[in-house]
Amino acid sequence: DAKTTQPNSMESNEEEPVHLPCNHSTISGTDYIHWYRQLPSQGPEYVIHGLTSNVNNRMASLAIAEDRKSSTLILHRATLRDAAVYYCILRDRAGGTSYGKLTFGQGTILTVHP
Amino acid sequence: DSGVTQTPKHLITATGQRVTLRCSPRSGDLSVYWYQQSLDQGLQFLIQYYNGEERAKGNILERFSAQQFPDLHSELNLSSLELGDSALYFCASSVGLHTGELFFGEGSRLTVL
């Protein structure tokens, strides 16, 4: 599986934007970029995903570099509820031997201060 | 609520014992995944089933086995338990074999004493 690199931790203040970076220099043409987050004492939850173009949904925005070797998850106004571990994951859209499983790294621990 | 149901939520047992964890996927989802989360290893993929068939295998120990039944629910069997098997076990489901986001349950916390 292609690998991603994320900072171990980041901090933000409530109601400020947060930019969570992810490097994936070995990304292949069939890899989607997925973001999941895990709130304390809960299972991971899907945040957003994209292939080449920037994506927006009700939770966040995903900005993808033109060469696709990096991406940034943007939380426009952080709330205390956004404190979680954020995982950037590459998922092979062609399936292949991975059959769609997600390989989680260590992720970024986001702390949000009131 | 993700729609994925896992039972039991908590389980305490002794070394050498065997336990079964159960997962009911979201309605309509054909893929079921099992993950193990421990403090030192993070989230580790164990195994994936799709419509009753095993499709992908991760770092699953030989002492562990799983299956997916015709009604699509899945069970993870852990035997000859060791202290190091203490962890959170998550089940997730998705609609397709390699498509669709994964929806995770709340996990089963296993403590081996």
Per DSSP, what share of the residues of chain B sits in E-state strands of 2 or more residues? over 45%
Shape by Cα distribution of chain A: globular
Multimeric state: heterodimer
In spatial order, strands of the major sheet of chain A run 1-9-8-3-4
Describe the protein's architecture and organization.
The complex is a heterodimer of chains A (114) and B (113). Chain A has 114 residues and is mainly β. Chain A is 0% helix and 46% strand. Chain A has strands spanning 9-13, 18-23, 31-38, 45-50, 55-56, 61-64, 70-75, 84-92, 108-113. Chain A has a 5-stranded mixed beta sheet with strand order 1-9-8-3-4, with no helix packed on it. In chain A, a hairpin with a 6-residue loop joins strand 3 (31-38) and strand 4. Chain A is globular, with a radius of gyration of 14 Å. By secondary structure, chain B is mostly beta strands. Chain B is built from no helices and 11 strands. Chain B has strands at residues 5-7, 10-13, 19-24, 31-38, 42-50, 53-57, 64-68, 74-78, 87-94, 103-104, 108-112. In chain B, strands 2, 4, 5, 6, 9, 10 and 11 form a 7-stranded mixed beta sheet that branches. The N and C termini of chain B lie far apart (31 Å). The mean pLDDT of chain B is 95.
Write a concise synopsis of the structure shown:
By secondary structure, chain A is mostly beta strands. Chain A has strands spanning 9-13, 18-23, 31-38, 45-50, 55-56, 61-64, 70-75, 84-92, 108-113. Chain A starts with 8 loop residues before the first strand and ends with a strand.
What order do the helices and strands come in, and which of them pair?
The complex is a heterodimer of chains A (114) and B (113).
Chain A: E1 9-13, E2 18-23, E3 31-38, E4 45-50, E5 55-56, E6 61-64, E7 70-75, E8 84-92, E9 108-113
Parallel strand pairs in A: 1-9
Antiparallel strand pairs in A: 2-7, 3-4, 3-8, 5-6, 6-7, 8-9
Chain B: E1 5-7, E2 10-13, E3 19-24, E4 31-38, E5 42-50, E6 53-57, E7 64-68, E8 74-78, E9 87-94, E10 103-104, E11 108-112
Parallel strand pairs in B: 2-11
Antiparallel strand pairs in B: 1-3, 3-8, 4-5, 4-9, 5-6, 7-8, 9-10, 9-11
